[in-house]
Design a protein that fits this description.
The chain is an alpha+beta fold. The protein has helices at residues 7-45, 48-54, 86-99, 102-127, 132-135, 138-145, 214-224, 227-233, 266-280, 285-298, 351-354, 367-372, 375-380, and strands at 55-56, 79-80, 153-157, 166-172, 175-182, 185-187, 191-195, 234-236, 259-260, 304-308, 318-323, 326-334, 337-343.
Length: 381
């Protein structure tokens, strides 16, 4: 991380940083404008009652209230995609593409498509069940129908057409993206991704992984460390049930732990950069680059890497990368189920820019309460 820089190279570096920063600032304004235009088009495509469901004030309590749980287990705020017409769905995709990189867009919508696969598998299991009572169970069928790529909500906070600050959110099972646009700047945290299955096990998509590299990036970094560094990175043996700083738990990690990344050589440094790119660059390129600059300004040497569990790409494990302007958590809960959260400890929801603190909430129901919300399941009891 540390190297000798001559006066000539230092001056050249300073000039390059100045040019790069100015270029990035101009592109960030362009990115914010594209997002704002796409959001305004989405709002304009909505009808009266839809607009009431989709739009909230920027400082509304609904903004930090989101979940990664299936629709049956939450009471979502925002407008469900399943209740949109074709033109409105196109506008949602336009907004996603304006806000996310190509990799981020494909990951996010891939996670949504996984719910369609889960539905198809559940229906197949029902039809092939040899027990007539289970095969004809209306509750089981109704529960399967809650798996749907349309069961994700879109919410807009503030008015993107007003020229002022605004934000938007996509939220649903295993996918949540929060974006903030203020004064030409774009924030994209908190962001949650997850996949179950991690790898599709049957049917025409067998072998497909939506989140194909995230766990492996942590494995690569861990394996490139020295034995002493790996020992320092390990903070436990028991795999957590979930990421610590998931929805409603933003302040769960106030202390750094593990290995401070201030002594890395070329190989682990390359793996660190690959890990950062995999998680940060899910946002549109200029927003991601601006966040990387904030991480660098805070000091890449101030990042800490933590690990729990075996270093086994096919097993269960947990890792996190934590610093003043970044928190990445990856939790392989089972060999075929993972959760990810990416946060900016200072600027989630654009709080540092907006000078407004949000009280984060996590709406969730128990499994029994979720079933009780489905009419076919209520009739069962």
């Amino acid at each position: 991380m540390r190297q000798t820089i001559t006066k000539t190279s230092c001056a050249t570096l300073a000039l390059l940083l100045l040019v790069t920063t100015q270029f990035a600032a101009g592109n960030a304004l362009q990115n914010a404008a594209k997002m704002t235009e796409a959001a305004a088009a989405f709002v304009a495509a909505l009808e009266g009652e839809q607009r009431q469901k989709a739009m909230f004030p920027l400082d509304a309590d609904e903004r930090p209230t989101w979940s990664n749980l299936p629709l049956a287990m939450v009471r979502p705020n925002g407008l469900l995609i399943i209740n949109m017409n074709g033109r409105q769905r196109v506008a949602v995709h336009d907004l996603m593409r304006a806000s996310m990189s190509s990799q981020g867009y494909q990951k996010m919508f891939g996670i949504m498509r996984l719910d369609d696969i889960l539905y198809a598998e559940a229906i197949d299991d029902i039809h092939n069940d040899e027990d007539p009572s289970r095969r004809n169970d209306p509750c089981r069928l109704a529960w399967a129908r809650t798996r749907n790529s349309g069961n994700y909500t879109v919410a807009v906070f503030g008015d993107p057409a007003s020229g002022g600050d605004w934000g938007w959110r996509l939220a649903g099972h295993h996918a949540a993206a929060n974006f903030t646009v203020t004064d030409g700047r774009v924030g994209f945290t908190p962001m949650f991704l997850g996949s179950s299955p991690l790898e599709v096990q049957r049917g025409p998509y067998t072998g497909w992984r939506v989140l194909s590299h995230e766990g492996g990036r942590g494995i690569d970094l861990m394996r490139s460390l020295t034995a002493k560094q790996r020992s320092a990175a390990i903070i436990g043996e028991s795999i957590p049930r979930d990421v610590f700083a998931g929805p409603g738990r933003r302040n769960s990690l106030t202390q750094y732990a593990g290995l401070k990344l201030d002594q890395l050589q070329s190989s682990p440094l390359d793996n660190l950069n690959a890990l950062l790119a995999e998680f940060v660059h899910n946002a549109e390129y200029d927003a991601a680059r601006a966040q990387m600059q904030l991480i660098e300004q805070a000091g890449v040497d101030e990042l800490w890497f933590s690990w729990i569990g075996p270093v086994d790409i096919n097993g269960e494990f947990y890792f996190r990368l934590h610093g003043p302007r970044l928190l990445i958590e990856y939790n392989r809960q089972t060999p075929n189920h993972d959760h990810i959260v990416v946060r900016d400890p200072i600027n989630d929801y654009g709080e540092d820019w907006l000078q407004h603190h949000y009280q984060e909430h996590h709406p969730a129901l128990s499994f029994e309460e979720s079933r009780a919300r489905i009419p076919e399941c209520r009739a069962e009891g």
